[in-house]
Amino acid sequence: MKAKMFRALLPLAIVFTMVSCSSDASEANSTDNKVVTSYNYNQVELKLVTLVNNHRASLGLNTLEVINHISFKSEEHNIYMIDNKVVNHDYFQQRSNNLVQVLGAERVGENIAYNYQTAESAMAAWLNSPAHKANIEGDYTHLGISVSVDETTGKKYYTNMFMKKKS
């Protein structure tokens, strides 16, 4: 009985597997070699861009242009941190390499934060940390930002990436 059922279902399983998986579909969803051009910014993200650029301008530094692809890569990292319940810079080198290959970055930096309720409080924490402050005030031309909320805890995860584009 089991053997007959197995023989009857095996062809269906093979057909389903072949139809549901294709290299074209997986490549279309990959951002490894393509520039992501669309990103929907929330109010906290927009506020942080303003805070970073206002701080830089107050020091006589150039303001940074937002690139949606960098924000998308930042969001991917937030999702990773939420899914794995960690706050860290895991896989930074892969994100950095992506910005070098896809956007022509010369240099990349990254700030992360966790559980700050407002853009202002996250920015204040970054400015009180020498390494984070150095990124905010660094020799960069572009940035991306993502602030994501863990739906189960309500806590916010922040990733802010900086990039200097090759001249």
Question: Can you describe this structure?
Answer:
The relative contact order is 0.18. Helix 3 runs parallel beside helix 6. A four-stranded mixed sheet has the order 1-3-4-2, sandwiched between helices. The chain has 167 residues and is α+β, with helices and mostly antiparallel strands. The chain is globular, with a radius of gyration of 21 Å. It is built from seven helices and four strands; from the N terminus they run H-H-H-E-H-H-E-H-H-E-E.
Order of helices and strands: HHHEHHEHHEE
- Major β-sheet profile: 4 strands, mixed
The shape, in one word, is: globular
How large is the share of residues in beta strands? 15-25%
Helix content estimate: 40-55%
Widest beta sheet: strand line-up: 1-3-4-2
Given the structure, what is the number of helices? 7
Structural class: alpha+beta
Count of individual beta strands: 4
Low-confidence stretches: 5-30
**C-alpha-based Rg, rounded:** 21 Å
Give the termini separation.
70 Å
Q: Taking all residues together, what is the mean pLDDT?
A: 86
